[in-house]
Design brief:
Length: about 240
């Protein structure tokens, strides 16, 4: 999403923005941009006349592909499955939010989520926000409401299946956040550190729990560290 002006034609975007209530520790315009990507992608799929069930990847700009040229992303799923990323808020509880930095969509999933967003802010807004904030408070998390929070609420509300693409037990997985020390393996929390593999010339994670090295197909660089992404291509070991 380069400019919001490209969404001015969208009645659904206008309806969402007019009813949106900012309840995040991030700046308002940051959150607006996060929400805008779903409406923009829906517009693109409609204009390009994508088949209803065809899946596409929604990728943020702060991700680094590590798979080799000629390789692809392989995943088995059905139309009622949402694929994104989730990690642990602590050693026991998964975060009540899904990160879409490398998520998989089709038109029906996008349509459902967009309608959920509009309803969330137009119908019983105060009750909906209070319930989501309470979920965060119970496990001691930041109580910000974001698209990641609402992705989690949407999956629960629509009784969708969720596939955590950051699960280390997958043959091919993506990184939730390179700076995060807690990672998921088969639903359990592992403590890991990022390491450079000289043999593979790639960055991965070493687990203290099972003494294994895990190499993600996609690295996700958040915060100020994303300014160093060009360094990855020049010298991975320095990066």
């Amino acid at each position: 999403v380069l400019e919001e002006v490209s969404l001015y034609h969208s009645q659904k975007w206008v309806a969402f923005k007019n009813s949106y209530r900012h309840a995040s520790s991030n700046p308002r315009q940051f959150e607006i941009a996060c929400f805008a990507r779903y409406f923009a992608l829906m517009h693109y799929l409609n204009v390009m006349e994508f088949p209803e069930g065809q899946f596409v990847i929604l990728s943020d700009s702060d991700v680094i592909p590590q798979f080799k040229f000629g390789q692809g992303i392989h995943f088995e799923m059905d139309e009622n499955t949402f694929v994104a990323s989730q990690t642990f808020a602590n050693n026991i509880n998964p975060e009540p939010q899904y990160s879409p930095h490398f998520s998989i969509w089709n038109r029906s999933l996008l349509r459902s989520f967009i309608e959920f967003l509009i309803d969330f802010y137009q119908q019983n807004q105060e009750i909906n926000i209070a319930r989501a904030v309470n979920n965060y408070e119970e496990i001691g998390m930041n109580t910000s409401i974001s698209d990641m929070t609402l992705l989690y609420e949407w999956v629960l509300d629509k009784k969708l299946k969720f596939q955590n693409y950051s699960d280390l037990s997958l043959e091919q997985f993506i990184d939730h956040n390179i700076s995060c020390f807690q990672r998921t393996k088969a639903g359990k929390c592992l403590t890991t550190i990022p390491v450079f593999s000289f043999r593979r010339c790639s960055i991965g994670f070493f687990s203290f729990s099972d003494l294994e090295f895990y190499e993600p197909a996609i690295l996700h660089i958040q915060g100020w560290k994303k300014r160093m992404i060009p360094l990855y291509w020049k010298s991975r070991i320095i990066f």
